[in-house]
Amino acid sequence: MGSRLPQMLKDAGLTAFVGAALGIFIVGFRTVDIGRGLTFDYHLVDLAVAVVVIFVGRLGLSLAANGLRWPAIALGAVMIAAGASPMQLPSSFLHWFVALGGVLLVIRAIWPWANSAVNEAARTPSGRALSTAGTKWFGWLLLAGAVVMPFTPFADQKTMDLGVLILTYVMLGWGLNIVVGLAGLLDLGYVAFYAVGAYSYALLSTQHGLGFWSVLPLAGMMAALFGILLGFPVLRLRGDYLAIVTLGFGEIIRLILLNWFDLTNGPAGIGSIPGPTLFGAVFAETAPAGKQTVSEMLGIPFDGNHRLIFLYYIILVLALITNVFTQRMRRLPVGRAWEALREDETACRALGINPTNTKLTAFAIGAMFAGFAGSFFAAKQRFISPESFVFIESAIILAIVVLGGMGSQIGVVLAAVLLIGLPEWFRDLGNYRMLAFGMAMVLIMVFRPRGLIAHREPSIRLHPAGSGGSG
Amino acid sequence: MAYFTQQLINAITLGAIYGLIAIGYTMVYGIIGMINFAHGEVFMIGAFISLIGFMICSMLGIGSAPVAILLVLLLAMAFSAVYGWSIERTAYRPLRGSFRLAPLISAIGVSIALQNYVQLAQGARPKPGGQIVSGGFNLFTDDGFDVRVTWLQIIIVVVTIVLMAGFTWLIARTSLGRQQRACEQDMKMASLLGVNVDRTISLTFVLGAALAAVAGMLFLMYYGVIDFFIGFLAGIKAFTAAVLGGIGSLPGAMLGGLLIGLIEVFWAGYFSSEYKDVAAFAILVLVLIFRPTGLLGKPEIEKV
């Protein structure tokens, strides 16, 4: 241990030096606009604190990696204490930064114990059975929770809004899962189809007076059509080229929405989009001429929350349709071809599967669900503008799929709750949450490239898992 | 004719900047076969470091423009190179050998994180850079239209040409360049022959980041305004340039940069400036569909 300590110190010092080099200009010298030019607002103390945290953290990490857990835990505890102490630091963020570093260090130090304990448990036959049964029951439990949620006491407006939002992302995640998780095509422009669905409904309802339920299938078809049009020429491309081309398409669609003023009203967006109706009855306090309100139809007193509950159930049903559809597709020949294609395209070609057509179906079906979700989004927001369909949305949906473990349906739900629910809860964090979001994407790829629930098994195997064969 | 010449001069200036960024994409793709999505953010950080560097220069009372430019150039290259190195070390190296799309997803994460990092540290408002070099001369006058070349445009083109020449020499003649090309052809074989592959890949990122930082400085001087979001569009356009020229090919990257500059400027000059970004994206899509190997690239054969 004694011989390795100087090396660890040197390593930590180097890391801290690199950290200082990274931060010196961007963090240390904040440029501030003072009307007739820029001036500096110095943040060198912040930088110094960060460099110390990096040094201590790196030292703790190498201690933990060398099996010296207790010193690492002690260092982590010191950092947590320092973060929680009423020390004079320039910003409260730094307190959090120091304490969080400590927490991460402690987690890293006890990780091997926790990991081996979990592995031990999973290796016993009962443990394995428990975990398979667990995922299955967990899904039904989540579903039951989602169904009764609006009638529980915590269903105030904020929670319901959040529920609708999370379910929208669950649906988008499930839709993208068909493209990315099952067919293995990286689509960075998924939000374009969402936009197509949203604008289809917005335009057809405000200009042609069509209702939500008649436009919904149209919007899905429209988005699927776009998927085919865009997908047909580009699906021959290799994985990462495809990713960039889809990103390009996503941006093209957004730029067109932004600039085609006559159709889309440009950056000002489209407003006063009618909401969905229940058998022709509208959700409002007073009905427009010739219509009926839902409270009149059902004979219940008007409550603003009814609309939200209705929206909640619509998106729940839409999301479930996506899920069931995907599960069924996986068992059809085309679904199996998707998964085979994801694993090995050359082998598929040799077996006579037409890769372009197979990919195209996945692309179009994924786009269709995005179209459904888009028209729901337009009906919910009642106002849409190109601002809602930027690249970062595609990245968030992709992150949900990847974090969930590509191909895993329940993983998408967990990831959506984690990525959409938590940040909404911690709104005060502001921009820090996007920073954390980006870093989380990297960390997940580095530590769990198969996602939170690494459940990406083929739907069918020649040999049952574990009984030989290459599976 | 005068209008055309003026647009041509502007296009070459812009193309030089795109070309410098494109080299980073092309080299990284050539050596490890991944799209370094975060490269545009390194360019953006290079622009910010240059902005801060110029402000420090004026605080220290360095009045002479050439000295200030040279100092800031070195500063931005050095410190952006640290970013390039750290990104590769933390976000890409652990993923070597993971499934194909993992580095790309990781790169998107880096890109989002860096954008928000700069936004948090430097604020979201656009930063005016001030004028470091002003003035120029009239090339000729035609129908009362002055064709003007600014000193700045000359600086941009000269800096780009010098860097390109130096870089080509580095790749073609030095042992570092030989190692780089060896890794590009066959990484396993190169490592068997004693080439330190990790070090070579790191150096590729460092060089790419340094060139992107130069592009960031030139961008700052040319447009005078930067914000935390400039990396996204510039990155996509430079990537388009790299693909157009043939990814993996250095002269291709430069040629692609020039073409993208030409397309963008002429599209904005003769058609509509709203759709100039659409033009760049459309070119990307068209090139990938009809000639995925680009203008100067070699076809890639997939072996089983």
Number-wise, the strands of chain B total 4
What shape does the CA trace of chain B take? globular
**Lateral strand order in the biggest sheet of chain A:** 1-2
Number-wise, the strands of chain A total 4
Strand order of the largest sheet of chain B: 1-4
Tell me the strand percentage band of chain B: 5-15%
Radius of gyration of chain A: 26 Å
Q: How does the helix and strand content of chain A classify structurally?
A: mainly alpha
Q: What's the overall average pLDDT of chain B, rounded?
A: 87
Shape of chain A: globular
Order of helices and strands of chain A: HEEHHHHHHHHHEEHHHHHHHH
**What is the count of distinct domains of chain A?**
2
Low-pLDDT windows of residues of chain A: 466-471
Quote the distance from N terminus to C terminus of chain B: 54 Å
Structural class of the helix and strand makeup of chain B? mainly alpha
Model description:
By secondary structure, chain A is mainly alpha-helical. Chain A folds into 2 domains: 5-112, no CATH class; 143-447, no CATH class. Helices cover 70% and strands 3% of the residues of chain A. Chain A is built from 18 helices and 4 strands. Chain A has helices spanning 5-26, 44-65, 69-84, 92-123, 125-148, 157-182, 190-208, 212-234, 239-259, 261-264, 294-298, 305-331, 333-343, 345-350, 355-381, 391-404, 409-425, 432-447, and strands spanning 29-33, 38-42, 281-282, 292-293. In chain A, the strands form 2 sheets. Chain A has a two-stranded antiparallel sheet with strand order 1-2. Chain A has a two-stranded parallel sheet with strand order 3-4. In chain A, strand 1 and strand 2 (38-42) form a beta hairpin. Chain B is mainly alpha-helical and 304 residues long. Chain B contains 11 helices and 4 strands; from the N terminus they run ααααβββααααβααα. In chain B, the strands form 2 sheets. Chain B has a two-stranded antiparallel ribbon. Chain B has a two-stranded antiparallel ribbon with strand order 2-3. The radius of gyration of chain B is 19 Å and the shape is globular. The N and C termini of chain B lie far apart (54 Å). At the A-B interface, helix 1, strand 1, helix 9, helix 16 and helix 18 of A face helix 2, helix 3, helix 4, strand 1 and helix 9 of B.
